[in-house]
Amino acid sequence: MTIKSMEDNPFAKHLGLSSWISRDIYPPNQDEYTITEIIPANSIVCLKTNGIYGKSTLAMQAAMSVALDLPFLGKYRCLQGHVIYINALDTDDDCCRRFKRLCSEWSKTEPSFNSKLKEFEENMTCISMCDDCYGTPKHLVDSGGSHTKTMTYLIKFCEYYKVKLVVLDPIEEFFPENIRNITGFYRTLKQINTSVLVLSNGTSSYDVFHGVEVGMELSENKLHLKNFFAGKKDIPLQMGVGIWATP
Fold first, then answer.
1. In degrees to the nearest 10, what's the CA dihedral of 61, 67, 68, 71?
2. Domain region containing 85
3. Cα–Cα distance between 99 and 134 in angstroms, integer?
4. Which end of the chain has a smaller Cβ tally under 10 Å, C or N?
5. Would you give the distance in Å from CA 141 to the centre of its chain?
6. Domain-embedded: residue 202
7. Which helix (H) or strand (E) element contains residue 68?
8. Number of domains, the chain
9. Checking phi first, is residue 49 left (phi over 0); if not, alpha (psi -120 to 50) or beta?
10. What is the mean pLDDT of the segment spanning 128-150?
11. Is residue 21 part of a domain?
């Protein structure tokens, strides 16, 4: 192929830095956060732990906060809407026990908890891939990076129910081991067009924070946030009887 002039050269179409210099980049407003200060709307957020238990409990608290219109950790306002929590490893009984434990403890400190649960119970869908969707492949993409039927199911579900938050627990179970890079998988998740909270079990060889808008690391006494838009933030935390709380 012969290129007659530089006008035909795709590398010359955006010469220099003028387009970047003139472009405005705006961080999301707090009104656009699914959970204020923590999860921006339509973002990919990754939660991992520093060798402790409790990330699924914290993720369930976040999911319930969005679904039931309750402040997350008693402090952070949520943009209410439907939530789907998909667990790839725990059974339906395991997930239900976690939910029941949270309900029991949450109702002790939040007077409106039981009424909110009754009013908005249909706002949250919890799926165990071991039970509810037994036989449905876990992977959302195949080894070539293309959508699987499971990914199509998820996108259609989110569109129909106008889902505000998707939780994938743990993220390593939702893509093939031989996928070339996790950043490409995150770009695929962006096609869901809502906030996606992914939990990492810490066994992946990938840098699970690479390609996300917010990385969260949970330790025994704090939640450390690395927000692409707002920088770093620490939220003091302590584990009570099966529920995380701010001291």
1. 50
2. 32-245
3. 21
4. N
5. 17
6. yes
7. helix 55-68
8. 1
9. beta
10. 86
11. no
